[in-house]
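Structure tokens please, single chain.
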Amino acid sequence: SSSSYCSRLLLALHGLFPTRTRNVTALGLAFLALLGFTTAAVGFAMDLTIEYLNLSRRALYHSLDPQPDSFGITLARLVVWVVPTLVLSTLAIYATKVLSPLAAGSGIPEMKWILAGSSTPHASYLSLRTLGAKTLGLTLALGAGLPLGKEGPFVHISCAIVEALVRMPGFARIGRSKPRKLQMLAVGCAVGGWSTCGAPSGG
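Here you go.
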């Protein structure tokens, strides 16, 4: 029957791979799924926060009635538009400086350096502290309306998530293998790039 044929086919395919290979494959797929959804969730939360900050700034600006058209009203609207930008930008810089100065910059050149096999430890560059500083700083900077690109910093964020995941007990095998860990960091770069393009599960 067709059901018995399918069962024999599945058993044959199952036997092509040793048990250890199947376990590693399942572990890798679980890791990739968790990475994709975690990165997408972080990106979604950041987008909501950025949109809220921008809409709040515009609502405050438009709440000042331009009639009568006087110098005082114009000056007030200018202050309302500029001051929140300055405050959020200052907070972004302060958060980066206090939490982790390694969060400054794009992140792509450093990831190219790490993926090239640099022997210099990169745990601090991909630490949870740096992840928090990068996420908070980028959210505040974009919420302030600064003309910044999200793709580069989000590659850094995604790779920091990879570093956090490989430290979990369930994925310790990936973290102990340098080649496999570098592969996952390369995947993290791709996930970070595609997450900024609206991929539903981080690429």
